[in-house]
Write a sequence for this structure.
C-alpha cells in the first residue's frame, strides 16, 4: 500500500482525503504552515502524523507519495522539494504558473525516476473515458465543433487567492484549464486561437471566451469566476452529438443522433466524490514503477501549459512570481 502525505490543508485537500480514505488507501501524514490547522485536519480524519511545515513532512521516510494542495504559485517549489526528497508527486491543477516551470519539474521527475502527475481529475472519470470510447468508435462521426462552459461564480472578495496576481489567480488557470483539457482530449493541440477577456480590478482575468481552431473543426471554450451560467460540454459530430452536464466532475453523458434522439445514455456514479479515480491511477502507476500516467502524461500537461502561456501572452498577463 502506498503511504500518502498531503501538503496544504484547505478545501481541496479535504476532498482528496475523503476520496483517498473512501477507497481505503493509506493517508499517513498532513502538513500545513499552521501547525494547529494540520493538527485539526489530522484529528478529523484520524491521520497518524501531522506537521507544521512542509519540510518536516518531506523528511519523514515513511511518506512515499505527496499530494500537493497549495496555491498554484507554490506548486513549482513544492514539487521540486518533493522530488528532491525522493517522493512521488500528485499535484493539484493547474500544475504550475507556466510551461518553463512545468518543464523543469517534469525533467527532474525523469532524472529521479519518480512518479509525477497533474491531478486533472476530469480525465480519469469513467464517464469521460466512456465518452472517448463512444467517439473513437464513430458513434457521432467526425467532430466538427466543441462547446465547453465552466461558469463558477465564486462570490469571493478581491483580496482572495482567485483574484491575486501574486498567487497565480484568474479564471484561466483556476477553471479555464478544464475546457482547455476537453478540447485537447478530443481534438488535440489547436492550430491557432482567438480570445475575448474581461479583467478584474486586480489585473487578473475574471472571464474569457477562447476559440481553438483546427483544420476541420473548432472549439469554443468559456470560463468565468464571476458568472454562474452554463456548466456543460457539447461535442458535435457529423452524425450526432454528446451532451456532458457539469463535465469536469460528471457522472453522466447523453449521446444523440442528428435528429436529437437519444441513442446512448452513459452513467457512472462516483464511489466517493470523483477524485478517487485519479488516486486509483496514481497508485497503479507507482506500483508499476512508472514515472507518468498514460492517461495524463507529462506531455499533455506541458502542451496545455504552453497553450495557457500563449493565451496569457495575448492578454499581457504576467504573474510576478513566475519564472
Amino acid at each position: 500500500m502506498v503511504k500518502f502525505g498531503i501538503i496544504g490543508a484547505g478545501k481541496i485537500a479535504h476532498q482528496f482525503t475523503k476520496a483517498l480514505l473512501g477507497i481505503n488507501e493509506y493517508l499517513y501524514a498532513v502538513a500545513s504552515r499552521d501547525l494547529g490547522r494540520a493538527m485539526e485536519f489530522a484529528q478529523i480524519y484520524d491521520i497518524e502524523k501531522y506537521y507544521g511545515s512542509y519540510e518536516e513532512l518531506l523528511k519523514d521516510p515513511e511518506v512515499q507519495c505527496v499530494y500537493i494542495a497549495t496555491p498554484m504559485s507554490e506548486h513549482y517549489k513544492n514539487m521540486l522539494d518533493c522530488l528532491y526528497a525522493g517522493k512521488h508527486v500528485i499535484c493539484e491543477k493547474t500544475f504550475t504558473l507556466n510551461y518553463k516551470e512545468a518543464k523543469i519539474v517534469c525533467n527532474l521527475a525523469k532524472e529521479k525516476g519518480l512518479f509525477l502527475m497533474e491531478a486533472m481529475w476530469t480525465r480519469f472519470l469513467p464517464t469521460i473515458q466512456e465518452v472517448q470510447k463512444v467517439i473513437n468508435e464513430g458513434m457521432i462521426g467526425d467532430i466538427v465543433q466543441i462547446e465547453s462552459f465552466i461558469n463558477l461564480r465564486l462570490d469571493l472578495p478581491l483580496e482572495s487567492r482567485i483574484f491575486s496576481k501574486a498567487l497565480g489567480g484568474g479564471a484561466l488557470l483556476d477553471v479555464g484549464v478544464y475546457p482547455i483539457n476537453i478540447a485537447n482530449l478530443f481534438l488535440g493541440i489547436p492550430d491557432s486561437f482567438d480570445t475575448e477577456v474581461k479583467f478584474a480590478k486586480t489585473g487578473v482575468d475574471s472571464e474569457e471566451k477562447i476559440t481553438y481552431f483546427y483544420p476541420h473543426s473548432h472549439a469554443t471554450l468559456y470560463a468565468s469566476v464571476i458568472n454562474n451560467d452554463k456548466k456543460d460540454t457539447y461535442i458535435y459530430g457529423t452524425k450526432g452529438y454528446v451532451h456532458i452536464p457539469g463535465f469536469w466532475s460528471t457522472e453522466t453523458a447523453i449521446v444523440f443522433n442528428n435528429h436529437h434522439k437519444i441513442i446512448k445514455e452513459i452513467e457512472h456514479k462516483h464511489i466517493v466524490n470523483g477524485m478517487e479515480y485519479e488516486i486509483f491511477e496514481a497508485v497503479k502507476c507507482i506500483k508499476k514503477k512508472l514515472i507518468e500516467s498514460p492517461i495524463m502524461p507529462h506531455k499533455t500537461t506541458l502542451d496545455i501549459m504552453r497553450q495557457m502561456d500563449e493565451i496569457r501572452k495575448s492578454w499581457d498577463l504576467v504573474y510576478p512570481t513566475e519564472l
Observations:
- The radius of gyration is 20 Å.
- Residues 66 and 240 are 42 Å apart (CA to CA).
- Residues 298-315 form the longest helix (18 residues).
- Residues 3-121+275-303 form a domain with the Rossmann fold fold (CATH 3.40.50.720).
